[in-house]
Amino acid sequence: MKGMSMGRLIKNRWGVLFLVLILSASLLMMGGCGSGDGDNEASDDKTVKIGVLGPFTGPAARVGEEFKASTEMAFEAVDYQIGDHEIELVWIDSESDAEKAARAYEQAIVKDKIDCGFLNWHSWVSVSCMEVAAKYKIPHFFSIGGTDIVNEKYESDPEKYFYWVGKGWPVPEKLSISYVTTLEEAIDKGIWEPRNKKVAMYGVDNDWGRGFANALRSQFEDAGWEVVSEDWVALGETEFYPMLNKLKSLDVSVIAGTMSDPPSVSSFIKQSREVGLESLIICDGLGWVGEWYDLTGEASDYVIDQIPQWATPEAQKFASEFEERYGLEPGANSGGLCYDLARFLVKVLETCDEQYGDINTENLTKIAKDEVMTGNLTLDDGVMTSVYQYTPETFPDPVVDKEHYIFPVIQYFDGEAKIVWPEEWKEQDLQIPEGM
Amino acid sequence: MDPSQIADPIITGLLRGGLYALMALGLALVFGVMNIPNFAHGDFYMVGAYLAFFSFTAFGLGPILSIIVAMFGAFILGVLVEKGVFYTLRKRSKKNWVMNTFLLTLGISIVLQNSVKMLFGANYRGVTAFWPGTMQIGSINVSIDRIVGFLIAIIAIAGFWVFLSKTKVGRSIRAVSQDETGSQLVGVNLNWIHTLTFGLSCAVAALAGASLLSITPASPGMGLTPLYKSWFVCILVGMGNVGASIWGGLLLGILETFAYMQFGAGWQDAISLAVIILILLFKPSGLFAKKGVKSALE
Amino acid sequence: MEKKGTFDISRLNGYLGKLGLKPLGFLLIILLAVIPLIITDQFWIRLLTSTLMMAALAMAFDFSAGFININNFGLAAFWGLGAYTSGLLAVNLGLSPWLGMLAGALAAAVLGFLVGLLTLRLSGIFASCMTWFVALALMALTTNWVELTRGSSGLSTPYLVDSLSNIPYYYVMLIIAIGVLILLRVITNSHIGMAFKAIGQDKQAAEASGINFVKYRIFNMTLSCALAGLVGGFYAHYTGVITPTMMHTSNTVEALAICYVGGRGSIWGAILSAFILVPAMELMKGMMEVRMIIYGVLLILVMLVYPAGLAGLCNALYKFMKDKGLFRKFGFVSKNVTGRS
Known about the structure:
The complex is a heterotrimer of chains A (436), B (298) and C (341). Chain B has helices spanning 3-34, 41-57, 63-92, 97-120, 144-166, 168-178, 180-185, 190-211, 224-237, 242-263, 268-282; strands at 134-137, 140-143. Chain B is mostly helical. Chain B has one domain (3-220). Chain C is mainly α and 341 residues long. Chain C has one domain. Chain C has 16 helices and two strands. Chain C is globular and about 65 Å long. Chains in contact: A-B, A-C, B-C.
């Protein structure tokens, strides 16, 4: 384009179009800047901004959608009003990626000036955002990401990382032991006579999948099982024929593991039936997303999972309200648990307002330290599990036992979950398909 | 090693490879005839999956009809894109054509993917099965869907073969791919052939996406994997070599399955990449290089 | 006898010309240097830092795409390689992030050199594809080598400076960006740049006229990758966490779009378009899809209707104003204008 003159440029009507386009883009941008500034000034001291972190786009976008819906429901119940403070929710998109999440989180702190953070789904996102929360000293309440890496990071420097206030999900081994117990009890009672005590582990290739499978692996080994293989698959993988054929040729009685995204997990279950895998399947998190049954169909029969059920009337009320409003069936964890945690957060905010008269980052940090971490402040009327409480011994995990926080082991039939463990809640015995 | 250990991956690999072959066929055709290295090929695959999903679930069309609707929809979209973008560029300048069209297809890919995302969200939309049931082949069970998918691929490839070698239009397409100027001299309408070729290539990609719907649910970013797999195939056999892309597709399917069995999930892409890189290094014109076919060499 | 003021400006113009800069560009750089004194909002400082970073990446991209006609589709992977090299050295060996940045550049340079060597026989489009495949392989390796890189969980890296303020990061990035600009402008304005263009347009003709194809092509790719690695090294200690997804093709596409909208083969056009596109995209963050569609449409439009991009537009305006004699009124001497083409 050497020496193109303005005259020629104007004669070229495409050039003019381009010029106009660029100009309007710049104008748009400047307009955007202006309105952006306006927003910042409008926020006064009485507005409390809460940054809600979740995978709103990306492979786990569905979880994000339910996060959004259930958080909104919890805050609508108090009309977005705590004392004379108005609550404003700021959605922070983690895109299921540690680095993008950290960037977005930092952005929310410096740009939107959030007073505290709330929620999160993936553990690796927790780890990266913990760093940011610690850097800016912003308390972040009840993130779901549950694996050991979060605990490790906290324990590496509790003084620094306590801003990541409490996990809404305990480390996997505290929950996964129930699977082994369920199987062992079934064997003891003579319900099941496995042809061998061989088990194969599988999982999504990230800290959650690996952490879960490793925890379960040692629990199986302690119970006298032989772990014959481990397979890790990429997030979003939908082709499992080669892996399933390999597992089939290994002749294992049980395959156990977890995947966290709907297309992978549904393809996995479906294809395991297609190749005729003759193993009992433990698939932690199959029911995490509401409409999983539409994707798997009857292939999910006999699959074992561990998910809280809509047992109480309050829980059923929440689930039906949720479905009515958003046209989505809520997943137990992404919907129900999140709803509970949001209500716990409301309680935290109320306590903060009562004690200090003002809700800000500093006071919230004090509440976190003095009330939440000590176990003084609890949520006693959860819809998913009875009591949410932290103690100095368990922190950052919640207290896990039958009185507090526990999930039943379930087995699916025709898309319905039947509780098979523990004894107290049991709806039926563990069912074993023909020939296993 | 017992024979089923070799036979099983080959069967699985072939079933997988059939659709790679189909995808690669479309890519090779567009490169051979129009000299466009199509980066948006995977997105037409995605469009096909979405069209099939909505025809199947929302309009209750049968599986075959849904797949046909997907093909036609993508064909029309392909024609529009060709007329709107490549035809415009061709009129304007043919300088640095290959690189420029490559970048244009990149832009088309971004626009298509994000438009779909905006319209339908990032949710996964899939069906449990078009044809429920499984079938025993050798020592392994395979779902009917996969077998039908493979058959569709074979029929489509065969159909294409007949079309390219037996019909007048097909012969014109081949003529253009061999000698553009020469074909114009004998009265081939170049613009029309280009539009048709691009449309057909898109239809083929959509066909693959639609037939695989029960295996890979539709989502906006689903096209990337089939895209680079069809690129592998084309480079493996030599760019623009339409016939050989079929064998390349099957070969890649088997290669991947073996990699998966040997090294575990997650590594198969790294292995196939390594193989492709080696091919480009030591035999840049592809495994089945033919005279008259464009090669990767300078 | 010239007036003293004009004399000074022309002297300055001469010095700047050697650095491949224009007086206007120099003014803008000074403006960028004082911005943190005017804008104190951390958000804007961070945004400007990201903008400069994308600008530097787009310039590195342009250095290959606009001159030797190879679109480095693996640029993001070289960026990621720099980040991981620096991050891993800091985490495992406790190497200072400052040295880590250089190590990152070195690692990317070595890989860039190898890729350049390996793609020598391939024509432009296939060499581009090859860089892309290498990038995909590198990303797969980073994702799967969990013991070393922690895989998709991401690697936590130490921060460059121990401060809540983003201003130090801004200045480091500004220095890197200006360094990249001057380095690339000086190289491309010299006879080396001519050689690049010659081999990019027609290899045979270039070789016939005695240009060492091998030397120039490998030099170009090595340098372009090294710069991406340097920026990656900075990025690792700016965000505090890096994941394999930073090597994803979509990041390359962003650099590519910025480069092309800015005007291929100009180097400085990339900065201009980064300063329009990156902030505009950031303000539309809520509308992820819309902003990507805008990228796509802009890319298509630039390719179809105005390949010279913003740089071409500015040159046309400049020429227009010069023809009308508008510069003399302001005391500018229009002697050194050939640099912009």
